[in-house]
Amino acid sequence: MAERFAAYLLTQGVDSIAELEGDAWGIWIRDENQVHRAKEELAKFRDAPDSPQYVEAQTKASRLLREDEERRKRAKKNVVNMNSRWRRMPNPGRPGSGFSMQSTPVTLVLIAASVIVTLLANFGNNPENAVYRGVMFMDPVHRDADITVRDFDQPQFRLTDIRQGQVWRVLSPIFLHLDILHLLFNVYWLFLLGSQIENRFGSLVLGALVLSMGLFSTVMQGMFPVEWGGWPWGGGMSGVVYGLLGYIWILSRFDPNSGLYLSQLTLILMLVWLFACLTGKVGPVANVAHFAGIGSGMSLAFLRILVSRK
């Protein structure tokens, strides 16, 4: 009878435990604020313990307990072990973090390529530099062409060199940086974000992400109209960096099992800088590439989540 009463209390939202104490049963109410109500229900129960409402309560209580257990299991799956997550994050200064030169080859190659190309191009300071001319979306010599803005925005003009077979130009601008701070900024974030993804998902995944984000951000920056921020002579890994940021942001937010992590402070700082660049107060910036990058990164992350849930 005690168990039947405890089951009835559960269906009424009163959490209790029925325990056998010697020869008698005791009912323990978990919330002391519900003790008075439980006493009132007990008085009613004693008058008619075999009433249908009490008999049926046992079946209903069993169902409620099963549902509660299922909720607990689902909640447990969503619990993220931050200690193990931090251990998985690459950190060259922390022994046992899983970071090594061999574990992030794509990240290191991208960093090396950015430094080498930028130095060979002399940061784009010499318009006659062969490397500088060869890696831009469009050869800088075309800037001196006697052409109207309207014609300048025509796709056939922007694609002058690419249409001649120089297809590498749709990606190569990501390796050229136009000043030392630009290079250091992008190398730093590429290392932090890229190595995290490469350690977690492998070199092929990071390579595919950089390829897709780099292509999309470069083409968007190179083809957008001038009045919308388009400019075919922009350069840098910023579009890719923002793409990786968006990718980690979405996966860490909506897929706790991804093992990726992005601090709130990092996200806020990067987003503040993203929109600060729109003001024009920080100099010429490839804003189209930034937004194309973060948009592509977020989209690829959502796509990964959808595919994994099928």
Automatic annotation (TrEMBL):
Enzyme class: hydrolase
Domain Peptidase S54 rhomboid: 164-304
MF (Gene Ontology): serine-type endopeptidase activity
Entry's EC annotation: 3.4.21.105
GO terms (BP aspect): proteolysis
Transmembrane helix among keywords: yes
GO cellular component terms, semicolon-separated: membrane
Topology versus the membrane: Multi-pass membrane protein
Residue ranges of domain Peptidase S54 GlpG peptidase N-terminal in the record: 1-62
TM stretches of this protein: 174-192, 204-224, 230-251, 258-276, 288-307
Keyword terms: Hydrolase, Membrane, Protease, Transmembrane, Transmembrane helix
Top-level taxon of the source organism: Bacteria
Localization of this protein: Membrane
Gene3D superfamilies attached to this UniProt entry: 3.30.70.2350, Rhomboid-like
Entries under InterPro entries matching the protein: GlpG_N_sf (IPR038236), Peptidase_S54_GlpG_N (IPR022732), Peptidase_S54_rhomboid_dom (IPR022764), Rhomboid-like_sf (IPR035952), Rhomboid_protease_S54 (IPR050925)
PANTHER family in UniProt: PRESENILIN-ASSOCIATED RHOMBOID-LIKE PROTEIN, MITOCHONDRIAL, RHOMBOID PROTEASE
Family statement: Belongs to the peptidase S54 family.
Protein name: Rhomboid protease GlpG
Gene: glpG
